[in-house]
Give the backbone structure.
Amino acid sequence: MTWTTLLLRIYAKAHKERNSIKKVGFLGECMIELSGQSFGKMNQSYGDDTLNSAIYLNRLQPNLNPYYLTSVGSDSLSEKLVRLWEEEGINTSSVLV
């Protein structure tokens, strides 16, 4: 089963049984992806299957307010990651720092 199929099944179930689903959580890790020249200009992005699934589910069904359960560092890159997740509508109240 692909992630897309799984997300569509979750969406269909949530749509059919709106009051029965209270919370959806995704457990995983997110990686900072660096691309560019070594010791030169680097571009940063982020991603992971679980995070991408949480983001896509939120875009598909925002009222589910999916949680992302993970742990991050206390550095500026980690703070930026959490801020970006929040901008995508992901509930980060279960993220450990």
